[in-house]
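Notebook B, p. 112. Complex prediction, attempt 2.
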Amino acid sequence: MAEPEEVIVGPADVYWSPVGEARPGLNETPGGNWEIVVASDRMGEKGVILRAPRTATDINSVGSITPIKVVNTSAGFEVEFDSMDSRVEPVALGAGIDPDDIEDVAAGGGNGGYSEITLPTSPIPFQASLLIRFPSPHLANGVAEYYVPVANQVGTMEAGFTKDGATMITHIWRAVNTAAGWVKYRAQTSAVSP
Amino acid sequence: MSMPDVLGAVVAYLRGESDIATEVGARVYGDALPASLSGQTVPKSIAVRMAGSGFDQFDRTFVPIGSTLFEIRCYGPTALDAAQVYYAVQPAMRRLKRHYEGDCLIHAATPVSKGTSLREPDTRWFFVRATYSVLAAEEAAA
């Protein structure tokens, strides 16, 4: 008989780290250089959208109107979500800026302290590793995740400031296949063992 | 096979929330308040009752998951007391996600109508009425 946890409802949590950071164990809370981009309680209504666009081409033999095989001619992976967290770091990530480039200025001269970013001017997008965490569909209270070793921030940041809506930053991260590997999905199937 | 007791699961979930326990203790009940509370005034307490709802996207499939509308009545000796109970219930229901109570898996709860201050016609008790659409599995968790 099917188990009810096979159906996943609700937004995931999205974490990031600099490229090359070790992937945390599935039952470890991401720590060290892994930080949350946006938690599910700061996520917009559309949640987290994982998209694997693919182009497939039919191959026909001479004289045949029906395909004899199909080949993939391109495949990608994108992560998209809206962040309602307007702190400087998530905005920097949404704009494609390395949070290490945030400038923290101490209070002084009649002004309070502040953090500041300069929007990107480089043709090279900001790259990071991503973890998208959500409940395991195999196990009650288990963990599942997508791991993206290298992703480029390609979203067109748009922050709306209106009377009747929260300011949201749309993130679109597009994976690239490098020596670090390609996108992986794993889901916990049994209890934690020492 | 019967589906899990979602009403009982919502009652148990609310009883287990510390902010709600601070307001009402263990006085969270299914359907209606017990006869033992039939005084001139009513202490802070909560009654959860099924309130129907139309079919949802899952009812058009064979996937055993579905939404039930629950009316939550937040009682208090005064209208302000009833509101304070509601202010503990609302965030607790909003943050309800992927929660197991026994064999019942509740996926999420969505407010349908937020708090409305009312009085019981017979007893004149103050209460705040709110409704939530609760999405839960209709098959038992192991």
